[in-house]
Specification:
Function: E1 component of the 2-oxoglutarate dehydrogenase (OGDH) complex which catalyzes the decarboxylation of 2-oxoglutarate, the first step in the conversion of 2-oxoglutarate to succinyl-CoA and CO(2).
CATH class of the largest domain: Alpha Beta
EC number: 1.2.4.2
CATH superfamily of the largest domain: Thiamin diphosphate (ThDP)-binding fold, Pyr/PP domains
Radius of gyration: 35 Å
Number of helices: 33
Helix content: 25-40%
Distance between the termini: 59 Å
Pfam family, one: E1_dh
Number of domains: 4
Largest sheet: 8 strands, mixed
Cofactor: thiamine diphosphate
Strand order of the largest sheet: 3-9-10-8-7-4-6-5
Structural class: alpha/beta
InterPro entries: 2-oxogl_dehyd_N, 2oxoglutarate_DH_E1, DH_E1, KGD_C_sf, ODO-1/KGD_C, THDP-binding, Transketolase-like_Pyr-bd
Amino acid sequence: MDTLFDSGLPSSFLSGANATYIAELYERYLADPDSVDTAWRSFFAELSDGADDIRAELRGPSWNRQDRAVIGTLDPDAEPAKEALKGGAKGKGKGTAAPAEAAPSTEAMRAHTLDSIRALMMIRAYRVRGHLEAQLDPLGLNEPEPHPELDYRSYGFTDADLDREIFIDNVLGLESATLRRIVEVVRETYCGHIGVEFMHIQYPDQKAWIQRRVESELNRTAFTDLGRKTIMQRIIEAETFETYLHRKYIGTKRFGLEGAESTIPAIEQILKRGSQLGLEHVVIGMAHRGRLNILTNVMHKPLEAIFSEFEGNAANPEDVQGSGDVKYHLGTSADRDFDGKTIHVSLNANPSHLEAVDPVVLGKVRARQTQIGPEGRSQAMGLLLHGDAAMAGQGVVAECFALSQLIGYRTGGTIHIVVNNQIGFTTNPKYARSGQYCTDIAKMIQAPILHVNGDNPEAVVHAARVAIEFRQEFHCDVVLDIVCYRRHGHNESDEPAFTQPRMYKRIGEHPTTREIYARHVIDSGLLTQEDVDGMLKDYTDRLDAAFKVGETYRPNRADWLTGSWEGLEAAFGEEEYKQYVTAAKRPALETVFKAISSPPENFDLNPKIARQLKAKAKMGKTGEGIDWATAEALAFGTLVLEGHPVRLSGQDVGRGTFSQRHAVLVDQTDETKYFPLNSIREGQAEFNVFDSPLSEYAVLGFEYGYSAQDPMALVLWEAQFGDFANGAQVIFDQFIAAAEYKWLRMSGLVVLLPHGYEGQGPEHSSARLERYLQLCAEDNMQVCNLTTPANYFHALRRQIRRNFRKPLIIMSPKSLLRHKLCVSPLDALSEGGRFYRVLPETDDLVPDEDIRRVVLCTGKVYYDLLQARRDQEIKDVALVRVEQLYPWPKDSVQRQLSRYPKAEVVWCQEEPANMGAWVFVDRRLQYALEELRNTARRAHYAGRKASASTAAGVARNHTREQAQLIEQALTWSLDALPQPFVRPTGLSQVN
């Protein structure tokens, strides 16, 4: 490290002539801060506590406090200085003047001043770098190396100076102290079992708060006898639970907490102190390490239930459908009482994607805070537990930190606990990260980081208390890094010594945290060995009793439809013919129309937007020509009028990627923002639209979490382009598609993925429709590729109007946003209108029995087919649109096919044959035709051949391909249509 201060001043600069120069500057600064250069003023300010005004904080040596404004310089020949020196200095007592001959010489003043500067520089160095020499590793394998900036000799001191008194003006709570004492205090504060990183914070109040909290003995956690006994009890419970499972279920995976038992009292402290500070709701997210321990010892899940799950009884309740999940992925909720204050704690279920749950927790917290109201930030909080390797290695962690202070996603601060095992699965940290700590990523948002030795439970609990107090005070993220170890391998059947023989030899010799802390409380006289043994026996007896009951334990019905979900139903197997009242009343539509077409008075509207608003006003008057964006606004507006909040987020969603939405109007003069859908009428629910950071994984996870917490809100995430969702595939796979069946947790999230082939190349043509269809089973979600604004309107409202919730994936349009044919009448949105899973032929053709071919399709390609058919005046080819691909509308499709008994059946799509819907619909169409007892007919394919790339990169090629697939669908003979997965004769590979 080249420099100690941001100003670039090396510690070695305090020598020779430089020392005198700095002393002079310092005295001038003390007299008048404005008399020195800005850089020096900043430098001297950094030496202070940072808590108060620097002029009061650094008053200088006590013998030089009098007449500072008069002195102004250290020139002994200057008249003000002479007068001041003659007057002497005021004593500490009653302020009497000392004899003139007792006044120190200029040289002595400079020496004392320089000593103060040097000491303050060293103290600041400990604040900045002290954590580098902190004793954090319980195993002692990574002993910190001495850092030169923490050596008093680097500041010009020698051993001869150790017992010299130095004035430091109440920094560290000491007005003055010997150098030896100063070093003892800063090393005890910053180089003990707690290492604090906070000097990277740019907010003086936050930095000063932490400084006071860790430096002043009065502010340190004072443990009562009861508090220390409770810590002992929690450590015993945490360790004994793990060893008991290890003994009863040898070799069974449980991802135990052995080596990190201090995590349990740390969480307990956060909950208890948090409840005292107004916290009422905590949502916990974590991976599998220690999950069972937290379930039983924090969430108070019955021990009987845990043992029953090990016996295979409880993970898949028979009274609700679902696949269930392994026990170390499951979540639960509980009310915990601390001294009469109740705090609701929920542990979110999580897949093996270690940090995937992080944004889900943040979204749930934000939704809960919104439900609470103005005090939500103080009453609800997220608590995330990370592994050290995952904290550094999983990009979603950084994405979540990036959300922490954004207006649409902030939650008033999250506490991050790192269970730092100092190892990944088998990977040493030096191969797993580039930084000093796994927590370095948290510095991106200036979060304070508390590193603590996990073998010192009291230090861990103290750090946890500081963390929750900081969060409640400043509503910012804070990180607690518990440096510990993993007593077994990645799981209990793994042999870690294969790759870490030295570490696991040390672990085998190392006493457990329970043994270490027991020795501490016994040596201090708090407890006897008999007391500790009794606590251990009592808990073991509880485990034995629960183990016996667990053999016959059966779970009660899941409580997954309580709270915000009360009154909703589980829906497994939606009946296709069932319709829901999704139409809006005509007066409500007119009210929304007025709001979205009328800007405020004196609002400097962009001329292009003004024209759009006039067009919307015309739609409202005539009831014709309603386009996609207008239908969307009407759906949102009518829902908020009915009391349902709407939340839409994603990249540039306020305007819309294609300049179609304009849900936020911006004054062209002063950039004031106006939200028309929030100004419909008094008493409406809130409409929120948030432009997101350039993140998909975290933002989609956040919105999923929000929807899981508040089923009464319509929650939407829109990708800038559909293929951007690729970066959030974990959320789709593990939560959106599977959460209801794995964990009995529903969501009504809407995902909008712009999709369509308009010659823009491979990247932004396809939203990968095939991927979502492949995830579909057991009516787990809906996938739609709609062709009319009216159907879009009803699809959105259907999400809220029915009595259950399912995720909805929509292939949303691009060119259709302004297509002259892609419009709907107002009547289709109001009374009598509804959602259509399948849309039949609309043109006037030959009689049904004379139809030569029926072409089924979905989405934008319909309009290309329609236009070509009209241009060519083809009257014997019917076009049927499958608007909802899943759940597959079997009856509706069969009904349309049965209308045309002599017709050939062709499926037409824009996407290559190995993409899009073809592979999904092929067998389903075959089954539909077989059930119509027409085995001679089968579905044929019209479209692009199978391809590795989603689309052509050259516009000319795209145009040729598009024209060809339209001709295939309308005019080619069945024999000439492509066989998408068969190579020409002589080639054995599939296409």
